[in-house]
Amino acid sequence: MESMTDGVAVEAEGIGFEDFFRGEYETLLRAMYLLSGDRFEAEELAQSAFVKAWERWDRIKGMENPSGYLYRTSVNARRSARRRVGLAARRAVSLQHSDPISESDERDRIRRALARLPAKQREAIVLVDWLGFSDIEAGEALGISSGAVRVRISRARASLRLLIERASA
User: What is the DSSP code (8-state) at residue 128?
Assistant: First the structure.
């Protein structure tokens, strides 16, 4: 059984949880940072996913794509947290929007552009373009078809081009 770690296939069934953790943690943390834009949230999501993976390691190590389990767990946790925060905010006060546009280096423009994408498009583009998942693997991690992944990526790329061009102008 293989999973993706930094774009390299790794035999998951033959490794222990510690090796799996060492091979996946930084990549998962970076992916969650790209999704959330917040280092602390990214750390919380990554750590939470690994706790769940550790609790279920006997089953997960035999999966075809154990890394996909991590990403799906993290993405689902973020979605749930966002729903809870949104609900609490609607109950308490109206949402205030911050001004996301400021001049900065290229990475900051890309991060800001990613943050402006719809969450589902951002999830797909990070998994495929940044982590190197195939559309099939990303679809499994997100619980959607590979065709839906390709549609999301196409829309995300078009939006990113526009957002980055506007930020650079």
Answer: I
**Which tens digit of pLDDT belongs to each residue from 27-57?**
999 999 988 888 999 999 999 999 999 999 9
| The overall pTM is greater than 0.90 | no
- For 127, the token pair is 């998994």
Count Cα atoms within 13 angstroms, Cβ side, for 42: 15
Report how many helices (DSSP H) and strands (DSSP E) the chain contains, helices first. 8, 2
What tokens were used for 141? 């991690």
Matching residue, tokens 């940072």: 33
Q: Distance (Å, rounded) from C-alpha 9 to C-alpha 18?
A: 17
Closest C-alpha among 116, 122, 131, 127 to residue 152: 122
Q: Which residue type is seen at 96?
A: Q
